[in-house]
Batch of 3 targets.
Target 1
Amino acid sequence: MSLIPSPEQKFVQKSNVFGTQIKDELVMVCLDRDLYFSLDEIGVRIWRILEKPHGLREIADKMTREYDVDIAAATENVAALLRDLLTNGLILPAPRKYLGEVNRT
């Protein structure tokens, strides 16, 4: 079972995750879980994108524009990273207002 409910679901960084850039990597600590985590250059780029709510599809699209990768590979790789970040408590689902749903009255 996937932890990513849909390509439209948006995620955002947790506020209690702090990191330090060391060359091309980011070493992070999650204070409420005593967890250390590191990201490579592309992971760092995705982490920066997640400063604001973004979904799997949006991030994968950005990766295809910024790196030499096709949409299928980008989607698979971004989904894997989002699952890791979510499982380790480093990101959260964004509030529903970011889903872009139309409010029907």
Target 2
Amino acid sequence: MTLVAMKVEEGCDGVRLTPASVRKVTELVDAKIEDGLTLNEMAESAGLSTGYFSQVFRKSMGETPHQFLLRPNVCGTDDTPTFATTEIAQWLNYSVS
């Protein structure tokens, strides 16, 4: 068994990250999302090269690493902010009468 074989598993729909690799990556994201995080750091936490990590991450998670990081619940909030129409109008310098 190779090192890469321990980091990914093969299913009926192709190669995916193992649950342990997904956990390591998501723990890293949780710990470093506020400080900035690179694709290389994510790949290293899974023990894979950047290019291969991107491929198997997308197959495993259904989205690219970048899309994953942009999700609101990854950035620390599960709630989409809501604003009154008057607040938005004021920010855009529209007259509110």
Target 3
Amino acid sequence: MDSKGFIMEELGKPETAIKYYQKAVQVNPEFPVFLYNNGKAHQKLRENREALECFNKALKLDPNYKDAQKAKEEILSKKLKNSNIQCNK
């Protein structure tokens, strides 16, 4: 299911990919890669809250998961940057 999600993502269909990733998480909720992949698909759709939730769950399962940490930091740094831009207006 995760590989189908990856294929859908590569085809530019992150909405469909999310459905496959969610099924993969249901089958094996203790595997952080499925959560990370789900988060990346949400991130592509600019669904940052959902993406952060996935990355946080992945990091809870594996605190040393560098890709999930990097993706989370990317979202948080963009949020911080956007809030600074709004304050300077």
